[in-house]
């Protein structure tokens, strides 16, 4: 009980000093709980949606996916004859059945040819209005579509694009372009996860999406009273002769949930990973806080020991303070986490994914996980300072002599740090020297972890040297004030090392990712310059294929010397070694692609791969399956016949563009795949006539004005697009790492604040002998800057080492250029100085306000 009272008294006596540590715990717990609440809410939203939109039993074509995805390689949805509806209605246990037609391989534009697809990446769906849709959509304005000239749109899309009744829109797909006017607006009765949905009447949907009537993409079946979905599925499957895919509502919902769940899991675990980094940084803050509080209470601890307190009681007293801190920070963190989740939902709504707070899901495990993590991490971080406090002997404490084992612990720390750093360096060397990316990745991960731990452990030893160098370069010019700032930073190397290490972790990751991202862009750009011989690349950034009408518009563009179509399909391979490879990709292109892509060959000539019944393979595939020039490969094409193709070329696997592709000509593909099953173009390449590049570029954009879903890029545009794509990903990661950097900044603030309190008497004496308030504040600011730059120097150096090693692994995949983004590295280093200045504002201000006489009188 006495220990608890002592701990409570000390905790509240230093509540101001504990506040920043509590904020670190709060932020870390909030990020974890916010991630869990947000992901659980997303799961709840999609579960409700899938449950509401799935009929008791759904019948679809055999080639349709389990998720109900309504696209195929030829840009048209897999369909069934309308006669299947009659068969289903005759099955026992069927209350009602209705045919429907849907497709997501569409683009919808307004009258100005602006794309109405969601920017969030959610699908655009066009389909027939039917009773199943009426379960989740309510017509709130106008009327449902009737006739080919009418279309209905969901309210979210109408509001976002300012659409109103009577406005004209165009539906673009593989069949052609269909225009209609908005007859009605429908509102979701469940949460809309961001899709844009347009409804036509059934005959119009059939003609627009498939090109003919008398077909359905699916039949929605409702069970009669007392008939289970499983029983209904059996009866419907029997009635249709087993020729179609039949799924219960649960099977459809589970397939959709699995499809969405994989994306949600990636997002969830990535965010939890960044929360873990924030926790790691917070550990240094907590260790520093308790180490300094223990140091400031050395005499008090000595008195406690002198009047009979045992080591265990002193140890326990510090740990109880940590328990109070962890509990306080974690409770606030759980509440803040729910707020973060709501904020993320609002942010997602701004991008088009509407998530309702009515679906906010806080599982009982979320606060438990947050509390346990926050408390355990805080108590563990306080263990070393607590153990150190318990070791202080009464007489040594009363003399302010400190712990006798400090020197020995410093030697052990130095040796351990050197061993860990050396082991980490060896891991990085083995990763860089690896011949396989999978093997190298393992060594890279080990090297990163060990080198990070090594730098953390050896930080105090490094601080002694690095701070002196930084002081000589930056602080000596400020005279005595600068030298005092340097000595203050060197006074306790362990504290300086721990404070700098907190900042080092976040900046090391920033530097590593910057090097990797820049190297990827530089490598891809270099490969593009070397291998791509075309002027223009036309594609859909969302991955949708290019419609025949758009491809034809490209071919008719004036000023072009050649146009190359590029398709991807798959087939079942039977290779010379007798193996059968199911669903293996194959690329079909026009013969001019051999000119557009200057692919390196190790045998034969790529142009010969476009001869009739010929193909190419890459050298790793050839080696694995004993293939050489003249070998025959049997390919059973998807939706087509079986061909025996002769290998005419073997390409190098050491490539970035089209790495690992196997080529045939479009003419060969057309010989074995019916015209109505031919896949659409993934991309189209175009080259201008000599001297007409600028005019052809403008003409291409004009030709595709009616098809805004496709981007026309010259090589400069394509390089910039790659750079922007990687840059957006890096910016997202930097944003998540900002949490760890914020916690590190709090650590600098806390260290300085406690250091000022620790040096109260010293500050009073310096003021008494003539140090001005301005000089005092400058001294503290410079001390903060040098600590921040120390952490930045270690972090950036370590991160660049990690990034350079990672690039060596990327070189095994063809990304051969190492590029250090010096502007970013220099900007981060300079920014760290400003971080140090910012962190010192409050401690410096408080130090400047000290009363000189009271400070001198402080014991």
TrEMBL record:
Any single Pfam family the record assigns to this protein: FtsX
Transmembrane domains' residue ranges: 269-295, 318-344, 364-386, 407-430, 442-475, 496-516, 732-757, 784-804, 824-845
Domain MacB-like periplasmic core: 19-238, 499-696
Biased composition (Polar residues): 61-74
Name of the featured protein: ABC transporter permease
Major localization class: membrane
Residue intervals of the ABC3 transporter permease C-terminal domain: 274-394, 736-851
Entries under InterPro entries matching the protein: ABC3_permease_C, MacB_PCD, Macrolide_Exporter_MacB
UniProt family annotation: Belongs to the ABC-4 integral membrane protein family.
Stretch list, region Disordered: 61-80
Subcellular localization: Cell membrane
Annotated GO MF terms: transmembrane transporter activity
């Amino acid at each position: 009980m006495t220990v608890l009272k002592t701990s409570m008294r000390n905790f509240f006596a230093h509540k101001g000093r504990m506040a920043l540590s509590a904020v670190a715990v709060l932020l870390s717990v909030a990020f974890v709980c916010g991630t869990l609440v947000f992901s659980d809410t997303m799961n709840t939203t999609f579960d409700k949606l899938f449950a509401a939109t799935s009929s008791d039993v759904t019948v679809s074509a055999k080639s349709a996916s389990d998720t109900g995805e309504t696209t195929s390689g030829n840009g048209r949805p897999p369909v069934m004859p309308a006669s299947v509806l009659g068969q289903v209605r005759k099955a026992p246990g069927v209350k009602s059945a209705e045919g429907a037609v849907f497709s997501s391989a569409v683009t919808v534009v307004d009258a100005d040819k602006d794309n109405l697809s969601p920017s969030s990446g959610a699908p655009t769906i066009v389909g027939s209005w039917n009773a199943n849709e009426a379960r989740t959509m309510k017509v709130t304005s106008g009327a449902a579509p009737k006739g080919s000239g009418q279309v209905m749109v969901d309210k979210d899309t109408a509001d976002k694009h300012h659409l109103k009744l009577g406005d004209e829109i165009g539906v673009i797909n593989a069949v052609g372009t269909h225009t209609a006017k908005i007859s009605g607006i429908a509102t979701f009765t469940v949460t809309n996860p961001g899709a844009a949905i347009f409804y036509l009447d059934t005959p119009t949907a059939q003609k627009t999406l498939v090109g003919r009537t008398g077909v359905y993409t699916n039949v929605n079946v409702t069970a009669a009273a007392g008939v289970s979905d499983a029983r209904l599925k059996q009866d419907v499957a029997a009635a249709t002769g087993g020729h179609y895919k039949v799924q219960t509502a649960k099977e459809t919902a589970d397939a959709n949930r699995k499809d969405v769940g994989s994306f949600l899991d990636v997002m969830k675990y990535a965010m939890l990973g960044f929360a873990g980094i924030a926790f790691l940084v917070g550990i240094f803050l907590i260790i520093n806080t308790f180490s300094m509080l223990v140091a400031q209470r050395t005499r008090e601890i000595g008195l406690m020991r002198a009047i009979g307190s045992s080591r265990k009681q002193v140890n326990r007293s510090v740990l109880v303070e940590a328990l109070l801190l962890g509990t306080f920070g974690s409770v606030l963190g759980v509440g803040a986490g729910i707020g973060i989740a709501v904020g993320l939902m609002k942010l997602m709504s701004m991008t088009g994914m509407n998530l309702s707070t009515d679906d906010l899901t806080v599982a009982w495990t979320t606060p438990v996980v947050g509390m346990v993590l926050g408390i355990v991490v805080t108590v563990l971080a306080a263990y070393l300072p607590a153990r150190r406090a318990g070791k202080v002997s009464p007489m040594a404490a009363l003399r302010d002599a400190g712990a006798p084992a400090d020197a020995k612990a410093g030697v052990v720390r130095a040796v351990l740090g050197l061993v860990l750093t050396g082991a980490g360096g060896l891991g990085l060397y083995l990763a860089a020297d690896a011949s396989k990316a999978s093997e190298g990745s393992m060594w890279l991960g080990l090297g990163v972890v060990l080198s990070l731990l090594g730098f953390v452990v050896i930080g105090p030893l490094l601080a002694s040297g690095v701070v002196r160098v930084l002081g000589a370069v930056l602080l000596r010019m400020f005279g005595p004030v600068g030298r005092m700032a340097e000595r203050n930073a060197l006074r306790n190397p362990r504290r300086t090392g721990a404070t700098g290490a907190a900042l080092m972790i976040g900046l090391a990751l920033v530097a590593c990712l910057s090097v990797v991202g820049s190297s990827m862009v530089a490598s891809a750009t270099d490969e593009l310059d070397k291998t791509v011989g075309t002027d223009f690349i036309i594609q859909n950034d969302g991955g949708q294929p290019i419609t025949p009408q758009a491809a034809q518009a490209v071919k008719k563009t004036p000023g072009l010397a050649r146009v190359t179509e590029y398709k991807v399909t798959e087939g079942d391979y039977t290779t010379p070694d007798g193996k059968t490879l199911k669903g293996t990709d194959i690329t079909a292109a026009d013969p001019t692609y051999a000119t557009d892509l200057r692919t390196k060959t190790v045998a034969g000539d790529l142009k010969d791969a476009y001869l009739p019944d010929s193909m190419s393979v890459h050298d790793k595939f050839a080696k694995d399956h004993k293939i050489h020039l003249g070998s025959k490969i049997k390919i059973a094409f998807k939706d087509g016949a079986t061909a025996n193709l002769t290998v005419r070329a073997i390409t190098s696997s050491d490539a970035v563009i089209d790495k690992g592709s196997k080529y045939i000509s479009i003419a060969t593909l057309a010989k074995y795949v019916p015209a109505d099953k031919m896949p659409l173009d993934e991309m189209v390449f175009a080259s201008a006539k000599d001297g007409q590049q600028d005019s052809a570029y403008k003409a291409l954009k004009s030709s595709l004005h009616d098809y805004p879903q496709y981007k026309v890029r010259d090589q400069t545009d394509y390089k910039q697009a790659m750079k922007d794509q990687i840059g957006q990903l890096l910016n997202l990661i930097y944003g998540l790492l900002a949490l760890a950097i914020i916690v590190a900044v709090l650590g600098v603030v806390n260290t300085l604040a406690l250091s000022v309190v620790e040096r109260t008497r010293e500050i009073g004496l310096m003021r008494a002998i003539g140090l001005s308030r301005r000089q005092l504040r400058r001294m503290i600011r410079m001390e903060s800057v040098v600590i921040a730059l120390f952490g930045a120097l270690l972090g950036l150096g370590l991160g660049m080492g990690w990034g350079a090693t990672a690039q060596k692994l990327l070189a095994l995949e063809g990304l051969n250029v190492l590029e250090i983004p010096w502007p970013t590295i220099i900007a981060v280093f300079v920014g760290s100085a400003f971080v140090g200045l910012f962190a010192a504002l409050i401690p410096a201000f408080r130090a400047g306000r000290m009363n000189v006489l009271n400070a001198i009188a402080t014991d």
